[in-house]
Amino acid sequence: MMVEVEYLPLYSTYGLGLTTWSPLASGVLTGKYSKGNIPQDSRFALDNYKNLASRSLADDILRKVNGLRPIAEELGVPLSQLAIAWCAANPNVSTVITGATKESQILENLKALEVLPLLTPDVLEKIEAVVQSKPKRQESYR
């Protein structure tokens, strides 16, 4: 999850937090698109999502998804739960909007709460090494 560096003063000075959406990147972080295939029953198979599918399944994104898979396996959790827990673990995030198309997905997504305690500083470093999402710019506020 990329957090714009310009917003940092809002978190520390005013106590505001982010509401994140699509922590599974429209299903990409479930792993079902990891080989570049689009399952027939998936969102990206729908006409309205074909443009999104072509952008979201870029090689760089799939490389990152495949890099996260061993971390999830090491923790013994699904990739989807790791992704949601990672978003929720960010101290600047107040709310994670998961979205789902099936009741079973809602129940599965809620299990991400059980993954939060597994996200030790070492695990978070491994995730960051894969996703490289930390803002690069130095703080320079007036």
From TrEMBL:
<dbReference type="Pfam" id="PF00248">
    <property type="entry name" value="Aldo_ket_red"/>
</dbReference>
<feature type="domain" description="NADP-dependent oxidoreductase">
    <location>
        <begin position="5"/>
        <end position="130"/>
    </location>
</feature>
<keyword id="KW-0560">Oxidoreductase</keyword>
<keyword id="KW-0521">NADP</keyword>
<dbReference type="InterPro" id="IPR023210">
    <property type="entry name" value="NADP_OxRdtase_dom"/>
</dbReference>
<protein>
    <recommendedName>
        <fullName>NADP-dependent oxidoreductase domain-containing protein</fullName>
    </recommendedName>
</protein>
<comment type="similarity">
    <text>Belongs to the shaker potassium channel beta subunit family.</text>
</comment>
<dbReference type="GO" id="GO:0016491">
    <property type="term" value="F:oxidoreductase activity"/>
</dbReference>
<dbReference type="InterPro" id="IPR005399">
    <property type="entry name" value="K_chnl_volt-dep_bsu_KCNAB-rel"/>
</dbReference>
<dbReference type="InterPro" id="IPR036812">
    <property type="entry name" value="NAD(P)_OxRdtase_dom_sf"/>
</dbReference>
